[in-house]
Design brief:
Elements lengths: L41 H9 L21 H6 L6
Length: 83
């Protein structure tokens, strides 16, 4: 089953050389035991946001589980790949 990004679209591969990601699939897919926390290190992103120093991201490549901890409105502020 395909895993989805924050827009409900299939997660794209973002890096193949070297193959990265938690499952080494090249995307931010997750497994049941990982709870999606690695996808953007969501709790640290909240801390960085609160300190006014959150980094830019490619929002279309962020796993939907991130939305359980970080609102889409906040993520959109730092997106490099959407208008």
């Amino acid at each position: 089953m395909d895993q989805l990004n924050v827009f409900g679209e299939v997660l794209p591969i973002y890096c193949e050389e070297p193959m990265t990601g938690f499952t080494r699939s090249g995307s931010c897919e997750t497994m049941d035991q990982d709870r999606g926390m690695h996808t953007v290190c969501a709790p640290r992103r909240v801390e960085a946001y609160e300190a006014n120093c959150a980094p830019k991201i490619y929002l279309t490549k962020i796993h939907e589980k991130t939305l359980e901890l970080v609102p889409l409105k906040i993520l959109r502020e730092y997106a490099l790949d959407i208008n």
